[in-house]
Design goal:
Length: about 200
Amino acid sequence: MSYILEKTDRCGLSEPFVSGNKKSYTDAGGSSASLNRLLTVLGKFDPPMLSEIFGLYRMWGHPIVDEIAGCKKVQEVGKRQIDMDHNVLRLIYACLVREFCINYIRLEGRWPLLTFTNPDSNRIAQLYVRRQLNWIERDGKTGLDDWAQVFVLKNFDFDYCLDYTQILDDKAISTYKSHWDQVYDPTLLGYHPEQGTESRPVML
């Protein structure tokens, strides 16, 4: 066990324990030469193999974890590079902008605020300048290449400071130990407990 700690402890916290075991072995009459030979042999094995040899798996009830190998495995799974076709991404963006504009016009009766990369040659830009709305169902000349050159400006005001107190409830957070009795019915306790000063609301 001490040799496994010596091989795996990078912080050096196990050094007193390891040194103490070696000293106890020599103080008990053990040969330093034989101990060094044993440590040389053990040095050829990794911690999982040492655990198997000395039956530590049976003591622990489960195998030890190789932290480095585990982290590398997680990185391989979680950091897989995804190769995306930029042309496909461009078409997806074009579809998104097209659907947004169509639904915005249907709901608001006007065009959303837009900008264009090539307004002179873009079919959408021409419709936008004329504020033409009746093209939605019948216009078949606007391809995704035109929509890919359309960029949506700010059309909505979003409040990032919502009032979350409207969805608060005060039954999930426990009280402090000194005021544990305030959550119980006073009629069952036989007295009215002192109310604590802590805040117990939690957002659901």
